[in-house]
Write a structure and sequence with these properties.
By secondary structure, the chain is mostly helical. The longest helix has 35 residues. The protein contains seven helices and no strands. The two termini are 25 Å apart. Helices cover 83% and strands 0% of the residues.
Length: 192
């Protein structure tokens, strides 16, 4: 039942992310998700809250499955929450210098802390299964590639949205794969 909730929350957030990405150009700075937030502020806030909730619900569920220590996740999730709050409250408008810098700082804090939380959570379970190890390597490569693309092309909807979509796809699948073995073990132990 819990796994279904993660799938539903992640799927709904993916659909919302794709929708908000489609409101502007995908590959230009003028199409950045934050620019969409200027035209659709309530949708942007709803999207930001959904993204934060879905990502961290998945992260903490994976951490529990992997038996990872959650202290670092609490710090990263709180920092990420503050970053998302700054992103949602302040406008991505360069004419409003202070708001623009606070928005960009918040966006950077959210992205870095969430990327670290996802990577470190997967890293904590990398030794448990080959699937987890491969996923950890793919996540590391995706984060590095996204950073390089961000430095080259600046913000745009693809560079901002694809890592979110990827994380929201891979984490529920990983929860399902790792959780199914636990339920199989419980059933096997109960039959003894």
């Amino acid at each position: 039942m819990k796994t279904a909730i993660y799938y539903i929350l992640s799927a709904a957030t993916i659909i919302l992310t794709v929708y908000i990405m489609s409101l502007n150009e995908l590959t230009t700075n003028s199409g950045a998700i934050s620019k969409t937030g200027l035209e659709h502020p309530l949708l942007f806030v709803f999207w930001g809250v959904s993204v934060y909730a879905a990502l961290y619900a998945d992260v903490f569920s994976l951490a529990a499955l992997f038996g990872a220590k959650k202290h670092f996740l609490y710090v990263l999730s709180l920092s990420s929450f503050i970053g998302m709050a700054l992103t949602l409250v302040f406008k991505f408008d360069s004419a409003l210098k202070l708001q623009y810098y606070l928005h960009c700082t918040g966006s950077l804090v959210f992205s870095v802390c969430t990327g670290l939380a996802v990577f470190l959570t997967f890293l904590s379970g990398a030794k448990k299964k080959l699937y987890n190890l491969i996923s950890t390597v793919i996540i590391a490569a995706a984060l590095v590639a996204d950073l390089v693309l961000l430095l080259i092309f600046k913000q745009n909807a693809l560079i901002e949205g694809l890592p979110v979509i990827f994380a929201l796809l891979i984490m529920p699948i990983t929860i399902s794969i790792n959780g199914s073995n636990k339920s199989e073990r419980k059933t096997a132990d109960a039959s003894r």
